[in-house]
Structures are given as C-alpha cells and as structure tokens.
Write a structure and sequence with these properties.
The structure is a single chain. Helices cover about 30% and strands about 30% of the residues. By secondary structure, the protein is α/β, with parallel strands linked by helices. The chain folds into two domains: about 80 residues, Urease, subunit C, domain 1; about 280 residues, Metal-dependent hydrolases (TIM Barrel). Strands 1, 2, 3, 4, 5, 19, 20 and 21 form an eight-stranded mixed sheet that branches. Strand 9, helix 3 and strand 10 form a beta-alpha-beta unit. It is globular, with a radius of gyration of 20 Å.
C-alpha cells in the first residue's frame, strides 16, 4: 500500500545537491519534496535510516539478466518478472533489458513476451545487434551478424516503438537512412561492436548517433595515428558513452582517463548476464565475471551499486558524482526527467544504502519493498 513516507537521518543525494539534516518526503508514487527534518508534516510516517545514504533509484540501460535468468534463453513473462524483482533488491529501479545478436524472429518473440509481461521496472528493450561489425563481435556469433536495411529495421520496429528503446549498431556499416529511420521512430541509436575510424565515428555522432555502447570493449582502439571510436567519443562535445566499471572489462586506470575526458558524458551500465548452459549464449561464471565456454569474455557480474562503489573506491570519483553516473546521466540520455532525481513530482524510486554500499531499503513507485 502506497503511503506518505518521510525518510530522515540520512544524507540525501539528488542531482547536484547533497542534503544533511533533511527529510525526503514521498507521497503515494511521487516525490513530495526535501525539507528540513523539523518540518516534516504530521501526517507522514517517519522512517529513520540511521545515517545511511539516500539517492534516486539506480538506472541500468544495458543488462541481459540476473541469477539464472538470461532473458534471451528463457523468453518468458516469468523470467522478466524475476529479473525485475532481483534488480529491485539491488537498488536498480529502472532498466532497459538487453538482447545480444540473434535472429530477427527471436527479437520479435522477445518483443511479444515483453508486451505480455507489461513490466514496471523494465523501461523497454535494447537490441545489441545484429547490425554490428563482425571484426569486433566479441561474444556475438559471426553467422548472425548482418547489414541493416530500412526494410529489416521496419520488420522489427514498426508497431513496437513503445517497447524498443535502444539499438546498438556499428556506424561504419550502417547507412544514414537506417539511422534516420531509428531516430524518427524514437529508438536511441548507440555505436558499438565497431571498427569505426575516428572520422567515421565522428560523422556518425554528428548525424544522429548520440551514444557509445560499453566504451573500450569491442571497438577500434585508441591508436596514436587513428584514435578510433574511443577517441571520437572523447573529442566530441555531446556524445555520451556507457562503461562497465568492474575492473575486468575495463581497467580502472582506463576508467579514470575516460572520466577525465568525458566528464558528465560518461555513465554506468552493468552489461550483466546470467548463468546459462543453453542456447546461443552459454555464460560460465568465473568468480567475478562471465565467459563463453571457449573463454571469450562475455558479460559482467556487476550490480549498479557495485559499479558505483568501484567508481568511488577504485577510480577515485566522488560518491555524489558516481551516483550521478548511475542516475542523472542515464536518465538524461533517455530523456526521462521524472527518473534519476529526487525532485518534487518525480517518480518515487529511492535507494537507501549504508557506508559499506549494502542496500538498506528500496522504495519503488512509492512502495517500500525492502
């Protein structure tokens, strides 16, 4: 049951503000405001968070599954709901569910399942492929990678614009009419699994691609005679990039350089997968990451809160900035002003975590679920 809640005795982080000795007010499913603790209205239930940190619910724009649920291998309403519940327990209150390169038929089936599930935590689907560069395929099967055409895109996108939120493509192999079609239909296009030169990537950024998928991974290198896709992202004024901060996919020193170059244009994702021994993507858990059976690095075993912790402890980014990388910046990219902040009127998605980065409480759409 949704109610009027006042979270007190914590440090509140929202956008560029940090509040001490204040209360976060939640009224039904919306944020009602932040007020001095002594000004909490009498009809609000006061909850003492005992010195913990209070921030907006975390946002992950690229995740494939959790625990034993790899969505592409399950394709059930139940698997989506289990993934949602697992992520809520981790403090991730909004995510875009990702599918790697596969057949277009499987993508269409996934869209139907997603529609039937009518999820509340998942914002939509992110298709990473099949319109990639096989030279930078990573764990994606080469035989399923293909060139995009407007007709192929229409076969997946048309009628599903409310579900398909993002698509990763190799810009050097994707024509401008395809990029235009995706943009016209509200699909956020992001560049990844790409061997693009600096020039090719920059032209793509200037002509409708606003983001880069998992910076450094599966892309042209930063070379001193052609700085490739990473260099194009660094040198562009507006393009954003996601990054996997687990210390495995990207060395922490590379994260430090990336942050210095991109500032607020760099945001966190998990790119997390799940243990799976069937289908195309058979992910094997190796202590703190996943590989394919042949040893190829696949997805991470990160949570968003762990990524924030790594930014603070391993990279040296301040806690407030690390939280913005997991809340404000991804919400900005997907143009959701009602998520990623604790402003009055925003959706009441809230994470409370302690000094050891352990989840203490989670509020989702005004309901305290932990």
């Amino acid at each position: 049951m949704k109610q009027k809640l006042a979270l007190v005795n914590g440090k509140i982080y929202t956008e560029y503000q940090i509040y001490d000795q204040h209360a976060l007010l939640i009224d039904a499913d919306k944020i009602a405001g932040i007020v001095p603790q002594h000004d909490v209205p009498g009809n609000f239930q006061v909850i003492d968070v005992q010195g913990a940190n209070i921030c907006p619910g975390l946002i992950d724009l690229q995740i494939y599954g959790t625990a034993d649920d790899l969505f592409s291998a399950e394709l059930t309403v139940e698997s989506i709901h289990r993934i949602e519940q697992n992520l809520l327990k981790q403090g991730c209150t909004s995510f875009v569910l990702c599918l790697a390169t596969n057949t277009l038929e499987l993508f269409k089936e996934a869209i139907q399942v997603f529609e039937k599930a009518n999820p509340k935590v998942a914002l939509g689907l992110h298709l990473e492929g099949p319109f990639l560069n096989a030279a930078k395929r990573g764990a994606h099967p080469a035989e399923l990678i293909q060139r995009a055409t407007v007709e192929l895109l229409k076969s997946v996108v048309k009628g599903n614009e409310h579900i398909l939120k993002m698509m990763t493509v190799a810009p050097e192999l994707t024509s401008q009419d395809c990029i235009d079609y995706l943009n016209e239909n509200g699909v956020l296009v992001t560049a990844g699994h790409s061997a693009a030169t600096f020039k090719e990537a920059t032209e793509a950024f200037d002509n409708g691609i606003p983001a880069v998928t998992h910076l450094w991974n599966a892309m042209s290198p930063l070379h001193h005679r052609d700085i490739g896709l990473p260099g194009a992202a660094f040198n562009h004024d507006e393009v954003c990039a996601s990054i996997i901060v687990d210390g495995i996919h990207v060395d922490f020193e590379a994260v430090k350089i990336s942050k210095e170059m991109m500032k607020e244009r760099l945001f966190l994702i998990t790119d997390a997968v799940a243990k799976c021994d069937k289908g195309i993507y058979q992910h094997v858990f190796n202590e703190d990451h996943y590989t394919m059976p042949d040893g190829t690095l696949s997805g991470s075993a990160l949570s968003m809160l762990k990524a924030v912790e790594n930014c603070v402890k391993k990279v040296g980014i301040s806690l407030d900035e690390s939280l913005r990388m997991a809340t404000l910046y991804p919400s900005r990219l997907i143009k959701r002003n009602d998520l990623g902040n604790l402003n009055s009127g925003s959706v009441a998605n809230v994470l409370v975590f302690d000094q050891d980065f352990k989840v203490q409480s989670v509020v989702f759409q005004g309901e305290m679920i932990i």
